[in-house]
Automatic annotation (TrEMBL):
All copies of domain Histidine kinase, residue ranges: 265-476
EC assignment: 2.7.13.3
Pfam family, one: HATPase_c
One Gene Ontology molecular-function label: kinase activity
Coiled-coil features, chain-numbered ranges: 217-258
Superkingdom of source: Bacteria
Descriptive protein name: histidine kinase
UniProt entry keywords in alphabetical sequence: ATP-binding, Coiled coil, Kinase, Membrane, Nucleotide-binding, Transferase, Transmembrane, Transmembrane helix, Two-component regulatory system
Record-linked SMART domains: HATPase_c, HisKA
TM segment ranges: 6-25, 191-213
Cited InterPro entries: BphY/WalK/GraS-like, HATPase_C_sf, HATPase_dom, His_kinase_dom, HisK_dim/P_dom, HisK_dim/P_sf
Length: 490
């Protein structure tokens, strides 16, 4: 019942509009038909009078003597042509016909006619009438009316009557046209008063209906708006809760997967050095010279200590709040490289360094995480370079967009294709034992730190060298720029 009144009022209003449109259309069509009847009555009367006034024998003589197109170029060129021309012109003027009155004769081509004498001052003598209406072709010898037809010159209402010679033979027709657009203009002018009256009556009725509908629709709009707001708020809340649950589920799955990977790697990576320490301890019990064994135990213990430090670092990075500050990239890289060199004094690699960040005024990132990335990359390059002729190539720069790029290449330790694809995943088992555990944990540490700074890391082979490349964005950089660089790297 709530919307019943509104529906009834709208239905009545629609009926009034339909009725007004029907009345307007009916009046228009009636006036149009009456107007056509008046036009045809006038045109047919004039055509009939002219057909009896025009001498058919003279017209036939003109077309016989001048039988080529445009042979008559001026109305006064031939006296007989001029006499018929004046007859047509006088009738056109006295009856206020706007279009030229003309005579048509048959063409040698089937269903085609030629213009003969016209009321126009400029003759278009024996020009072909290319698209005559079918009624003209059919009733050429009888005459008749042509209702609303289209030819190459426009849309017309026309009447035509046959012109006969003394023998009673039809030699031509005289045709009088009324431009249809002019006719419609006349009809529309006659309709203005009727349409204005209809518009006035229905406008008054519509105004009062509008006042009534306005109040009803206002109440309806307020009700719909309330319901819509309630629905939108409900959908918004449901969507938000759903997104929160989905994010929580994804995060939970990710955390569980990472915990599983971390525990697997932790037990696996620590077990190797631990087993070697236990084996060396057992060996020390039976060996007299224990100094070498102690040194080996120290090396394995150092490896285990490095692993534990990296595990602690990974855990701290995961939970650490990012602290953004301005970093002097050039100074930090050189400082870290000096520390790594002092750590591996026994390794004298052939190092080629290209660092193009000294001109950078500002780079904003978390210093601790940044240093962890660079330190682990340099440490891996020194630790796993070829033992006999180590070679390291370091290339670093910050481009105009604010992307820090660090590429480190070294010879030595080689990976299989499977190990390359899984290089940054702890839970993937390695095909090699020993140092592979340390490499894997180091790469995982680099990946964790890089992800924390919204960067990207990639490992590949280049000219026989293992190449590790890292891209880090300035903290205030537009993410779309970084996405472009990530696509280039991948």
């Amino acid at each position: 019942m709530k919307f019943l009144k509104l529906k009834i009022i709208i239905s009545v209003y629609v009926c009034l509009i339909v009725l007004a449109l029907y009345n307007t259309f009916h009046v228009y069509e009636t006036n149009k038909q009456n107007g056509k009847q008046g036009v045809f009555a006038k045109l047919s009367t004039i055509a009939s009078i002219l057909s009896k006034q025009i001498d058919g024998d003279e017209l036939q003589k003109i077309t016989k003597d001048f039988n080529k197109k445009d042979q008559i170029k001026n109305a006064k060129q031939d006296s007989s042509y001029y006499q018929i021309h004046q007859q047509l012109k006088n009738i056109q003027k006295s009856s206020k016909i706007t279009s030229p009155i003309y005579t048509l004769v048959r063409s040698n081509e089937p269903n085609k006619f030629l213009f003969a004498v016209t009321s126009s001052n400029k003759p278009y003598y024996l020009h072909t009438y290319h698209n005559p209406p079918s009624e003209l072709i059919k009733n050429f010898d009888k005459g008749g009316d042509l209702d609303e037809y289209k030819d190459e010159n426009g849309i017309w209402l026309s009447s035509f009557a046959p012109i006969k010679n003394r023998s009673g033979q039809v030699v031509a027709v005289v045709q009088i046209d009324k431009n249809f657009n002019e006719f419609l203009k006349d009809v529309n002018n006659d309709l203005i008063n009727s349409i204005l009256f209809i518009v006035l009556v229905y406008s008054v009725i519509g105004f009062f209906l509008y006042l009534f509908l306005k109040d009803v629709l206002k109440k309806e709009e307020a009700y719909i708006k309330t319901q819509k707001n309630y629905k939108n708020e409900l959908e918004k809340e449901v969507k938000q809760r759903t997104n929160e649950l989905n994010n929580a589920n994804r995060q939970l799955v990710k955390v569980n997967s990472e915990l599983e990977s971390f525990f697997y790697s932790t037990s696996h990576d620590i077990r190797g050095p631990l087993c070697r320490i236990l084996g060396l301890t057992s060996l020390a019990k039976v060996e007299d010279d224990k100094q070498e064994i102690v040194e080996m135990i120290e090396v394995e213990s150092q490896k285990m200590d490095d692993m534990l430090k990296k595990m602690v670092l990974v855990n701290s990075i995961r939970t650490k709040e990012v602290l953004i500050e301005e970093v002097a990239v050039y100074d930090r890289i050189n400082h870290i490289l000096k520390q790594i060199k002092s750590k591996y004094t026994n390794i004298k690699p052939d190092i080629k360094i290209k660092i193009a960040t000294q001109d950078l005024k500002k780079f904003h990132t978390d210093l601790e995480i940044f240093e962890s990335i660079v330190t682990n990359i340099f440490d891996n390059s020194f630790k796993f370079s070829d033992n006999i002729s180590p070679k390291i190539i370091i290339n670093s720069f910050v481009d105009k967009d604010g992307i820090f790029s660090l590429t480190v290449e070294n010879n030595g330790q080689k990976f299989s294709e499977i190990e390359i694809n899984n290089a940054f995943e702890l839970f993937k088992k390695a095909n090699k034992k020993g140092d592979m555990d340390t490499i894997r944990l180091g790469l995982y540490t680099i990946k964790t730190c890089t992800d924390k700074l919204n960067g990207v890391v990639n490992i590949s082979y280049n000219n026989g060298l293992t190449m590790l490349k890292v891209l880090l964005p300035d903290y205030y950089l537009d993410n779309s720029i970084l996405d472009f660089y990530k696509k280039q790297l991948n």
